[in-house]
Structure formats: C-alpha cells, structure tokens
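Project channel, design review

CF: Before we commit to the Streptomyces rishiriensis constructs, I'd like one complete example in the thread so the newer folks can see what an input/output pair looks like. Taking Peptide/nickel transport system permease protein.
RD: sounds good, go ahead.
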Amino acid sequence: MRSRLGALLWRAVLAALLVCGIGLLPWLSHTDPALTVLKARSADRDATPEVLADIRARLGVDEGPLRLLGQWLAGLPRGDAGRSWISGADVLPGVLEALGASLLLMLVASAVALVTAAGVCARTLCLGARRRLAGRPGGGSGSAVLAALPEFLTASVLATVVGVQWGWLPAVGWYGPQWTVLPALALGLPAGAVLGRLLDDQLPAAFAEPWASAAAARGTTGRSIARKALRRCVPGLLPNLGLFVVGLTGGSVAVEQIFDIPGLGRTTLQAAIAQDLPVLQAGTLVLVALAAATTVGARLAARLLIGPALRDGALHTLHRPSPPVRRILPVAYGLALSVVILLGLPRDPLALDTAARLRSPSAAHPFGTDALGRDVLARVAHGALDTLLLALAISAIGLTAGVLLGLLPRLSGPLVDTVNAVPPVLAALLVAAVWGSGPTTPVLAVAVVAWAPLAAHTSALLRQERATLHLTATRALGAGPGYLLRNELLPAVLPPVARHALLRLPGIALALASLGFLGLGAQPPSPEWGLLLAENQPYAERAPWAVLAPAAVLALLGALAVTAAGGLRRPRPRPTRTADPVADEQPSRSAESTVTA
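CF: and here is what came back for Peptide/nickel transport system permease protein:
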C-alpha cells in the first residue's frame, strides 16, 4: 500500500513539474506573450506599446508566471481550466471536444493497428498451430516497409489519391465516421507493423513451451493452441500498446493537420505556437491523465491474462537461445542503402538548375529533380548522413536509458507515462524555449521521448522473467540479486529490447522527419529527409519521384533495421562451465538487492 501511495505521489509531482514548465514557456523562451497573442488574434494589427500593454493587463502577464499558474491550478477543482488567451472562450469544453475527436480517431486507428499486427504474425501463428515452426527463418520485410512509412506522407497520399482523385472517401474535415478511415489508416498501419513485429518475435518461444506440446499430445486443436500462445505473449506487449494509444491520441499532429481534424494534438500544437498557456496546460494535463489510466488498464489486463502464475513464479521464459538466422537480407538491404548514399555523395545537393525543374528520373538524375532543379539523389544521400547518424545516436541513447530505467519500474513507470504524454512537437517547442531553436532542437526533442517505450518493454519483460520457474529454482539454490541480474535477467531481456530498439530506428528517423515537415527541424536549404518531404509534397502529383525517393529510402532503412534485429538473439549457454551462484554472489547480495525489489 505504501509503495502505491509513493508511486501516486511521484506521478503527481511529475505532472505538476510538466504543467509548471509549460506555464513558464514564455518566460523561458524570453518572448513577449502579448506579442505572440496579438499575432495569433490579428496578424495585421500593429504591435504598438499601448496595444501590447493592454493585452498584458487583460491577461495578467505583469503579475508574473507564479500568480498565473496559481490561479489556473485553483480553478481546476471547480472544473475551471481558465479562458483561452486567443479566443476568450472557456478552455475545458474545447479541450474535451478535441479529446473526443482524438479518442475516436485513436479507436479506429487502434483497430487498424490490431488488424495489421494480426496480418504480420499470421504466418507464425499458422505454422505454430501446425507444430512446424522449427528452423523457420525470420521475415519481416513487408512489415518493415509499413513501419517505415511516414505518417504524414501516407496521409497526404491517401487524401490526394483516395479522397480527391478517386473520391472514395472524404479527404478533409471531421463530420462523421467516414472521415476517420483515411487518417486511421495513416496512423494505424505503421503502429500495427511495429506491434506485429514485437509479437512475432515472442510467438516461437511460446509455441515451444511444455504446455503447447502437452496440449498437442492431448489432441487440442491448433487454433486453440494459437489463441493460448497469443494470450501468453500479449502481456509483455501491453505497456507498449498503451504507449501507442496515448501517442495516437496526442502525437498525431501532422495527420490532424493534413486532414483538418480538430483533435487534441492539433489543439496543443496551435496553443503552443500561439503560447495560449491555459489551453496548452489543460491539453497536456489531459494527456498525462490518459497515460496514467492507460498504464493502470494495461497492468490489470496483464495480470488477468497471465493469472496466478505471475504471482506464484510458475512461468516459463520466452527468451531462449535461437538458431542463427540468415544474413542475406540485411546484407542486401545494407548494400542497397550504401549504393544510394555513395552514388549521391559526389553530387552537389544545393546546385540549382531552374531549367531542369521537376525532371523525371534519367541517367543524369536517377531520382529526378525537385521544384528548384536540384538533384534529388544528391539531396537524399547527403540528408541520409545526418538523418541516419542522428537516428543511430538517439537509438543508442534511448536503449541505454530505457534498460537502466526499466530496471527500476517504480521510478520509471510514472516517468514513462509523463514523458509519453508529451508529443514530440510539444517537446520540440519546450526544448526550443529552453535551448533556443536550431539543428539540435529536434534531436533533443526526440531523445527526450525515445527511451520511454524501451523502458516500458524492459519493465514488462523483467516482471515476467522474475516469475519464471528456472529463476525461482536458481534463487532457491542461493543465488543473489547480482548473480540473477548478470546471468539470468539481463541475458534474457537485453536481446528482445535491443531488437525493439532497432525496430524503433526508422520511427526515430520519422520523428525527426515529422518535425522537419512541421517546420520545427532543419531549415532550407538543408537536405534533411523531413524537409525534403515537406518541400516536395505540393508537387507530388506532377513529380511523384521527388516524394517517393526519400520515402523509399526510409522504407529501405526500415527493412534493414527489422532484418538486422532478427540476428540479435540470446547467446546459447556454454555447457563446459558450471556456475556457482552462491560463490559468485556472496559479496554483493546486499549492495544489489534494490534491483529486484
């Protein structure tokens, strides 16, 4: 009971710090909120000292941020979140209306994601039900392409082709269920591909457990065994599913912008740009509450699915040594990506040729040219260096931080919820307010949130791994926390979390690209991939190659990451060495006892 109260208090402190940080946004960025509000209200009105002084007096800015924040917090118990600095309307009804639109979009996108995840692991389920999984090579190239699809690019293509040219579904607006289909597809396909890969990674070990063999021997149908294998694997992924739910609610800013959806992500973005603090604080607080509720729901669902085996330490490990996988696919994808980069590096990405605008691919320009006559291959190759290096660095930092914090779930659990409630766009604006805008702003913004899914995955896997029979037996033989951590827990958890980090690599590149697409990342004439997509999107119908080329390279990066992740497996134990857990652990039991607390 005391630990739950401590976790609740820690969660409240983190939420308060986040809201207070948002309340200090104008003062951190050293900008005049009256000037920002004036531009948002009427861009044509002159910013005279008298006009600015009148706005400051009406908003109460001269009283200081602490008094404004105190007044806003005092109204929350009464259901009063203040009034918008831009429109003057009550904040809470508008935020709840935006939340309703985002929740509806999230539900439909989650359904698309679940169907996509089922399609990704359908082959494994069929083979496992027939007991034919032995020696099956890992796949995943198709799911890698889906996972690497930029959400904003998919949204633009669906709106232009399906909505405008074919007229099958509404392209813009938010007036009923039909308007949810295209944005839900843009959001759900990449999320479902990632979830499907994580699930497909664990299913073979579930089908290899003794209960599956015993069920098959008793004549249990393959379909029933497949359902039980799913039930065995899903609890370890529920925390990440909860993160996806919150991310789809508040982080779908680009998609909401393209389809003109009055959702919570778009509302918080507009409030952050206009420094409409009451709306921004209320929207962020709603996202934090949603993240907390989702985490509690995921934890309860995991306990219901696993049953008393989690409490009694009667589980089998899902992370066993696996046979070597074929290396031909990652080598082929890596060579293809290297060829693209090496062919484009000798070319000048900034050379203008207005006479060669929007030229189709040719021998002189294999990827064609953009609206300014610049060579697309050169810009893709030079942009790849920055994007790939930054994505790799952020992935490495996120993996390290995620594993370390995942070992301390009581500390990291509320922190994960709070961080995940901050969309990358809002994180970029907060980073820009503190550090200033520049090329490092998107890097810091993405790095701040990149570790959260890995920490949630690590905590979920450790929770199940600590409840396994072999760990209970090893502990009964006298092994202490340090020995269990080094020789049992980390070797079992690190490979799947490292594979997860590789699966996230295209997503990190996409997050950087999304910030560039929204104008919060690199600025022209930089060849950064997000900026390439943003610059060439208006010409997608006339010159599709200008958009398809960077998107294809992103898909190639995703295929490389997924197939390379398949090679990260738990090493086989060496039978020649017999470990003595008691002798190994005697000196360090007390020092490391907090790890498994």
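RD: helpful, thanks. Confidence is low (pLDDT under 50) at residues 573-597.
CF: The two ends are 15 Å apart (CA to CA).
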